[in-house]
Each structure stands twice: as structure tokens, then as C-alpha cells.
Write a structure and sequence with these properties.
This protein is an alpha+beta fold. It is built from two helices and seven strands; from the N terminus they run H-E-E-E-H-E-E-E-E. Helix 1 crosses helix 2. The longest helix has 16 residues. The radius of gyration is 20 Å and the shape is elongated. InterPro entries: Phage_tail_terminator.
């Protein structure tokens, strides 16, 4: 299993969205606050900490967030966008040579008037770091267990 980073996941989300929207919407990072065009999408990764399991393994809770800036708020267009995001990402997101399970999608609203759609993508607990033979550790391939009755 290949190590994975938050950036890898964000790049995969952006790639899937670019493929779905094919230039209809510009995709920005959350650091852009001025000069963006509407309608547009802003994407980001949200984590809730990293858990170091062993010296060879770590995982973290990961979700993605897509924020939709429209010219004018429109609940029908927001629902259409939500369904297109789900279609673009599907049940699994390909990140390098791995496929991350998407555990669910949800919506919420943000902004001064609480009228800017946000789509949350829940990836659950993602293994992000595996040390392998190249780093001086070898992966277990076989385990033989013998049980003796007393």
C-alpha cells in the first residue's frame, strides 16, 4: 500500500471535478479570497488528527469540502451541483494507485446569509503512512500459527 497525503487526496478531488465540469466552473483553493469568478468551486481537505498506530502505520480521519459560489443563490442549481459532485467522485476516489472509499456525502450552508452551499465528502479513517522495505522495514507476507492442546 502506498503512502498518501492530504495533498494527494485534494489533487484527486480536483481532477475528478475538473473532468465532470469540463471548464463550466473554475476550481479554486480556499486561500483565494479575491478575484474569483462565479459560478465557481472552492475545494479543501479537512482532517481531525493523525493517529500513529505503529512505527510503520498511521491513519487520519479525512473529509473533503466543496464550496459552491453561485452568481445568485438558487436551490435547484445547488441540488443539481450536489448530484454532479456525487457523480464525479462516486463511491471510491482514485488517489494514485489506491481507491479511497467514500462513506457519504452531506450538505451544509455557510456565509453571512447562510446561503453558500458546502458539500462534505466523508472518507472516514484513511491509512496515510506505511513504511515498507525501501525504508528498512519488510512487510509480513505469511504467518504460520500452530495451536497445541493441553
Amino acid at each position: 500500500m502506498t503512502a498518501i497525503s492530504e495533498l494527494d487526496i485534494l489533487v484527486a478531488i480536483n481532477g475528478a471535478l475538473q473532468k465532470e465540469f469540463k471548464g463550466e466552473l473554475k476550481i479554486y483553493g480556499r486561500e483565494v479570497s479575491d478575484g474569483y469568478k462565479t459560478p465557481s468551486l472552492f475545494t479543501e481537505i479537512v482532517t481531525s488528527g493523525t493517529a500513529i498506530g505503529t512505527k510503520c502505520h498511521a491513519s487520519m480521519q479525512v473529509s473533503g469540502r466543496v464550496t459552491y459560489f453561485e452568481k445568485m443563490p438558487d436551490s435547484i442549481e445547488e441540488l443539481k451541483l450536489f448530484n454532479r459532485v456525487k457523480k464525479a467522485l462516486g463511491k471510491y476516489l482514485e488517489v494514485g494507485d489506491r481507491k479511497l472509499t467514500i462513506h457519504g456525502y452531506s450538505t451544509s450552508y455557510t456565509g453571512e446569509r447562510n446561503n453558500i452551499l458546502q458539500v462534505a465528502i466523508d472518507f472516514g479513517n484513511v491509512v496515510i503512512w506505511i513504511r515498507d522495505e525501501e525504508e528498512g522495514y519488510s512487510a509480513m507476507e505469511n504467518v504460520n500459527v500452530e495451536l497445541k492442546e493441553e
